[in-house]
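User: structure tokens for this one?
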Amino acid sequence: MPTSSMRRSQVILRMPVDHVTASLVLQDGERSEAVLFVPPTDDIAQVIGPTGQRFLPMIRGSKLHLVARTAIACLGVPAVTTLPQDGDLPLEVQAATVVLRSGVRLEGELRWTATRGSARTADFLNTATETFELHTPDLTFHVVKAHVALVEER
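Assistant:
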């Protein structure tokens, strides 16, 4: 049997990807820091959404893990500050606490551009997307709706 000095999963590290530092929360509430490998053409919502790969390669601790996409409750990535520009649509902002099914509580702000007649938080959360963003000063959490128990407006 031929031997190789390179483990199979190390090939992943040679594909063109961005290394994204993230705060990972799994379905059971386990939290850890991770480094994700995100293709330059994708964003976090695509990676953890229903069209993403079934297993996501990431570094947790010092080891490469292949994490089931359906086990990911949310990913917090460094927040990006954007300055309002002329012509931007107005944003609805709602302070909220998101409680995951595991009991993990996340506090921040929900932000969205509302269409006429749908400015309520419930309208935003009931859109067809599989995820939503919760903004904190340091992180933007991409929360998988299927893992949410409740959202409390503050």
